[in-house]
Amino acid sequence: MSDGNQRETGEPLSRRLRDAWMKTVGAYATDEKGTQGLLQRLVEFGALSAEEAKKVLGEARGKIDHNKTELDLRVDESIKGALDRIGEFREARRLEERIGELEARLKELEAPSA
Prior knowledge:
disordered N terminus, mainly alpha, rod-shaped, single chain
């Protein structure tokens, strides 16, 4: 039986969310080929020298790496927070059910015997 956080394959929800995120925003944010193509066109048009393009590309790579790391951390924290809240909710539900059982048992014990 699945606990709601895993598919029948056993893949955790956090992994599925992370994979989906990386396939969308993560892939877009790390598109180095697009940056290289743009810089190459600027060199061809004479708007940048080859040295300037290398410098800009190096800076872009640094920013992309930093942003990707930051994005990964934020996604991980968000997923962990959501999973923690789900766990807390389940624990509260379980405790409510147990209290109900104990209250019913107490009523049985307090009822006058016939």
